[in-house]
Amino acid sequence: MDLEGFRGELRQRKIRPAYLFVGDQDLLKVDALEELRRAAGGERATVRSFFGSAKAREILEAQQNLSLLDPVAAIVIRQASKLAKAEVEELAENLDSVGGGPTIVFWDEKLDKRIKLFERIARTGAEIEFGAPRDSDLRGWIGGEARRLGHPIEPRAVAELVELVGADLLGLRSTLERLSIAVGHGATIGEDAVVEHVASSRSHAIYELQDAISTRAAAKAVGVFRQLVDEGGEPPALVGALVAQIRRLLLAREAAGGNLPALLGVSPGRVRYVVEAAKRFSPAHLRRAIDELADIDVASKTGRGDSVAALEEWLVGFCGTARPGEGRHVGGR
Prior knowledge:
This protein is of the alpha/beta class. The chain has helices at residues 3-11, 26-41, 56-63, 85-95, 116-123, 135-148, 155-165, 169-183, 191-214, 218-230, 235-254, 260-264, 268-278, 283-302, 307-318, and strands spanning 18-22, 46-51, 72-78, 103-107, 127-129.
């Protein structure tokens, strides 16, 4: 079932016993869950949330909660792919026997339909995939969000936002909200405003990330990395920024004389900072880090594994406490 079909059923007050919410656009899932809550229970109703570590018994007890004082309209299980096999089996055995309770939403980017419970729900037509709109639909969505915030937006500004942020709707909404504050109430959002307030802040955050890994500030590096991802930064681009800085450190570690500002690609005032930062790492450590980032880059471009999680783990490992020459593998590998 597509999103419009789901909304059509809600308008008819057709609520299915269970749904699969799949796809990578969590913002659309949040909006759909809110529509489901209102359709199933009205404004006073609530949503009970669980994660993949939950026990089936806890979920089933919540599913039988018919309290008039605290009505539950829906139960959502986030990271549902992490549910233990025994818990999935217990849910499958008991869901049919529980009548009249709130609907259950199994929420994750992907759910394995070889698992009987998920296959059964999907077969009923209750699987909804939440993917980002494309091309004109995406541009229309951006325009609609801008109008919701009280702003006209120029077509070139829309194109620039897509170029800088990509198709992640959560990142686009967050960016538009920041632009709304920056340009002022009711003002038109133009291309210049996007370049000034989005492109420059993205570049500044990348510099912060590069500086954080140079000083082995793991917490700061992870924080800035998460900010960049939330704002639509794509793993291949972030890998490129990290590799560029590590190569700079490696050059500073091994270069003997020469025109260091040109060699390192930094201003003369930054040369001493880079050279001092490079002393925190051995050349072998830096070369190994480049190899590991290359592996992550290949995995991200071929869809193998969670590249965001791999990069975050890499950052923690690279900024760890090992000293140059200790032979520690980056990321603990």
